[in-house]
Amino acid sequence: MSAKPRNLLFILSDEHNRDISGCYGHPFVKTPNIDRLAAQGTRFTSGYCNSPICVPSRAALATGKYGHETGCWDNAHPFTGAQRSWHAALREKAVDVTSIGKLHYRSEEDDNGFTQSILPVHVIGGKGDLKGLFRKDTSLKKDGSGLAKGAGVGTSDYWRYDTSITQASKEWLAERAKSNNEEPFVLFVSLVLPHFPLIAEEEYYDLYKDLDLETLSQGLTAPATDHPTIRRMAEYLNYNDHFDAASKAVAMRCYFAMVTRLDDMIGELLAELETSGLSDTTDVIYTSDHGECLGNREFWGKSNMYEESAGIPMILAGHNIPRGAVVDTPVSLIDIAPTVADVTGRDVGGEGYRGKSLIALANGQDPGRAVFSEYHATGANTGMFMLRKGAWKYVYYVDAPCQLFDLRSDPQELTDLSADPAFADVRKTLDAELRAICDPEAVNARAFADQARTVEINGGRDKVLQEKELAFTPAPTT
């Protein structure tokens, strides 16, 4: 742990594709504040969420454990506060740990472990996406037309919500500075952009309005996959069928604009640290809960193990953190819990966590390290399990073909090597390492059983299917 306890400003966004940031090599997106933070600290090139969908990803972040350990499988099995979290542990150690913004837990009626939660949003009705539990039903198909039809210039509730979150966070930091309280704090600022709906204010949209589809699509031109699980998911989510070239260009411009708006808000938070005199005593983490496919492989949203979906930005800056460093060691959101312990100098029950402090990883490459992600949520007719180690990404699907990619020679994941005899030993080794983390078949069966029970608890199939379908969790009234 750090020799002297420090404060932490932890900034989380929603659905930020790792590659759509200047510091990660994007050729034109405007992210000067994220880029500056990376220059002042350490940027991890291989950051991953532990499940590429909001609710289970955020549960893994809170608990430092995988979804198969907590039972937070999908968007209808949220964190409830009953599972041990790093924020609850910090609060017990008299650390002020405040959240501002989206949490996506079950309810504010639960004790979620924070000293206070400002402007929180949780799953709808405390239940979340029950319709997403019918994962094997091939008769069901979502109406994905709203993503394309809704994209364009304007102001969304999410845009306004994030503006309120940013303002509340700046006010919190200013008040904290005035208090002269020398005990460490953690301020968890959880923004929603660039999560869809893909709506951007004109000022930001105009930054990208003259870019054509070919330019906008750089790095996002992989063809549709022929993997049966992913193909079935794309058909179920039914997003891409509603896009033509013109609407796709509008949607992409909006996404880039939303990323730039996100970057501006991050800049406001960092400026407030300086203004309030807290920057010298406060470390900063920026990351996201998952990525966004943005039409790559004719897929929109997240929910798969390709880099654009499971990959996330991960940037750490502050005391004892190398400046301008780039670390290739794979990291994931379960590494946040031990990092928070390291920053604040508080024991938060690290023996139960799967991760490792990002500060330690920033100060020493670990080429043999592996990270793990899993998916048991909407659209997936079977469980997905991913292991990233070194150059390799191995994805195991229960009762479906596996995938193996060499990300160093094939960063776009265009060539699946899983059936190539030359890589049989690599696949076997990675499969054994994945199975040391969990038994995929047993976990898959348990996830389906839990999901079936949840459907019955909520009145059964017919009742659940009658409920109104919402494309995303609405923002609270601010």
From TrEMBL:
<dbReference type="InterPro" id="IPR000917">
    <property type="entry name" value="Sulfatase_N"/>
</dbReference>
<keyword id="KW-0378">Hydrolase</keyword>
<protein>
    <submittedName>
        <fullName>Sulfatase-like hydrolase/transferase</fullName>
    </submittedName>
</protein>
<dbReference type="GO" id="GO:0015024">
    <property type="term" value="F:glucuronate-2-sulfatase activity"/>
</dbReference>
<dbReference type="InterPro" id="IPR051849">
    <property type="entry name" value="GAG-degrading_sulfatase"/>
</dbReference>
<dbReference type="InterPro" id="IPR017850">
    <property type="entry name" value="Alkaline_phosphatase_core_sf"/>
</dbReference>
<dbReference type="GO" id="GO:0004065">
    <property type="term" value="F:arylsulfatase activity"/>
</dbReference>
<dbReference type="Pfam" id="PF00884">
    <property type="entry name" value="Sulfatase"/>
</dbReference>
<feature type="domain" description="Sulfatase N-terminal">
    <location>
        <begin position="6"/>
        <end position="345"/>
    </location>
</feature>
